[in-house]
Amino acid sequence: MKIKLTLIMMLMAAATGLWAQDTQRLVVWKTNGEKIYHELTDEPETRFANGMLMLSTKKVSISYPIAQVLRYTFEGYIPVVSVPAVKKGEVRFSQGTDEMRFDGLAGGTVLELYAPDGKLLRTQTAAEGQPAVVSLKGQSAGLYIVKVGDASYKFMKR
Q1: Which of 36, 25, 28 is nearest to 69 (CA)?
Q2: How many Å apart are CA 46 and CA 48, to the nearest integer?
Q3: 0.70 cut: is pTM over it?
Q4: Contacts of residue 132, Cβ cutoff 8 Å, sequence gap at least 6
């Protein structure tokens, strides 16, 4: 049964084009056209501080000036669609191309969106039991800050 299931999965992957890449990588795209690859098996972690994109893996720690980074993407990676439910007292956030979503915020939590120049663009209040979505649609590319209560989140819009 295991062999049959594996064969079916291989055929499905080949038919859907998922077979093309057997390695999963984080790719840092630099403004000069250079691409730097980091294997997901090396467990890359990214963070932003002091105008730098900092990337740490099992093998290397490296920093890139944000001004020199066009974007970073994943290759050969199929994101998980199902997200487990948020437990009481737990807050999760996720980001898409033009928005950040916060699940589990207490009703009345204030969210503030700041422009790259530090100007407050808008304020919104989370509703109890509902996800709070901060949209950047219509905003220009740049680094935005979303302040949620005492925490701040940086969001890079390309």
Answers
A1: 28
A2: 7
A3: no
A4: 101, 102, 105, 109, 111, 124, 126, 148
Whole-angstrom Cα distance, residue 22 to residue 20?
7
What confidence tens digit (pLDDT) does each residue in 60-77 have? 888 889 899 988 888 875
Summarised one tens digit per residue, pLDDT across range 104-156 is: 888 999 999 998 888 999 999 999 888 899 988 888 888 899 998 878 888 88
Q: How many CA atoms lie within 13 A of 79 on its CB side?
A: 9
How many CA atoms, within 13 angstroms, populate the side-chain half-sphere of residue 141? Answer: 6
What are residue 127's phi and psi, to 5 degrees? Answer: -95, 145
CA dist., res. 134 & res. 112, Å (int)? 9
Identity of residue 121: L
The first and second tokens of residue 90, run together, are: 């737990």
DSSP conformational letter for 33: S
Instruction: Give the mean model confidence (pLDDT) for residues 23-41.
Output: 85
